[in-house]
Amino acid sequence: LALRKSRCPMVGISPIASIWTQMLNDRTHMKNDNANAREDAEILFANERFYAAFAGGDEAAMVALWAEDGTVCCLHPGWVPLQNRREIMASWSAILQAPPPVACVAPSVLSLGPEAAAVICWEQIGDNFLIATNLYRWERDAWRIVHHQAGPVNGRPPDALIAAARSQTAN
Question: Could you read off the pLDDT of 60-88 as tens digits, one per residue?
Answer without folding.
Answer: 999 999 999 999 999 999 999 999 999 99
